[in-house]
Amino acid sequence: MNNFRFAKPEDFKPYKLGKSLCMDFDAVCNAFAEDPNKRINGTLSGYIYDMPQFPDDHVKGGVHYARYVRLPTSLIPQKQPPLLAAFAETIQATIPQETSFFDLGPGPEWSVQQNTVPALKILQPDVYIPVDIEPDFTKEACHVINNQFPNIKVTNLVSNFHAEALPAATTANALVWYPGSTLGNLPSKPTTNFIDNAYVIKHLTLLRQGAKEEKARYLVLLMDRKKDNVQSMLDLYASDTAKGCFLSILFKLKRDLQAQNFDPYAFIYEPCWNEQTSAVEHTFTATASQSFKIYNGFTYDATTIKILADERYVLANSIKPSLDDMQTMLTRSGWEPLQFAEDVDRQFHIHLAQVG
User: Fold this and answer.
1) What pairing do the DSSP bridges indicate for beta strands 153-154 and 127-132?
2) Cβ neighbours of 89 (radius 10 Å)
3) Rounded to an integer, what distance in angstroms lies between the CA atom of residue 85 and that of residue 119?
4) What is the total count of domains within the chain?
């Protein structure tokens, strides 16, 4: 992930980056709508992991995230891998043989090694399919699994699983392996309860599609949960490394949508808890008024974004539902919950569901 796609900033063009990796024009319009009642919270969440594309590129969310998960305060590398590995034993007793393993958002090599490899050792699926819009991540995942599991067939799938249905498995059954941080970054309406979040329902429903030729499709979903001490939860995002993930969004907006007169530094970042949506809202308060144009490099549309001083914008979400609410959401999305578990400290919960 250290190779730049472009030698210098002048070489960068949005269409060269590709529509799947370029910041979405409509998402920015929704995030910064002049009428606060028309804004959609968290529409830019998916861009906190983006990588620099040329030397001195300020879009470094993925770099910051890789550092963040290695901090002693980060719960992800401490709690997720053992819970995923332990739950794989439960899965093995439930899911039939002849299974394709769809690994959604496998991430870089360290993530595959910690979150996927231990489960594959237990489950031994017939086919392994990493799914991500970032080609470098799927290639990396394929390389890791090919080296460690020569008997598992590996098939690369570069796809946006938020917008595109998964293909039908070539085996009788399919297991959708979803550690869930991406689902936790979905948008929300500020006054809507989590179990009524239409964006989450739509996403979970999409994961069921394409399963017509399979005997069964299963979903394994791991979610971060709300902490009893809300402030301790917000403190997880207080480090400069964590802040860097979210501030990177502003630089990506300027870069991808050619917002020449936009100042990414004119914001104060703060995480806030929204009890109704069950989300840590990553808020950006403007320190100055701005007016700038953004351009859609694929349709050539353009619009002017107006930002008001002291106005608060929620650009990213970290949704953290309760275990019961996640079970309800699975049912509402057409999945039948089968099993669930929590880590001993009740920081995460994990679910096994089948297409209902």
Assistant:
1) parallel
2) 11
3) 5
4) 1
> pLDDT per residue over 83-137, tens digit each?
888 899 889 988 888 999 999 999 888 889 988 999 999 999 999 999 998 888 8
SS3 85: helix
CA distance 100 to 81: 21
Range of the domain at 196: 1-356
Pairing of strands 290-295, 335-342: unpaired
pLDDT at position 247 is 96
20, 123, 139, 291 from 208: Cα distances, Å: 22, 21, 25, 42
CB 152 within 8 A of CB 124: yes
* pTM score, whole prediction: 0.91
pLDDT-derived band at 62, boundaries 50, 70, 90: confident
Q: What's the CATH code of the domain at 226?
A: 3.40.50.150
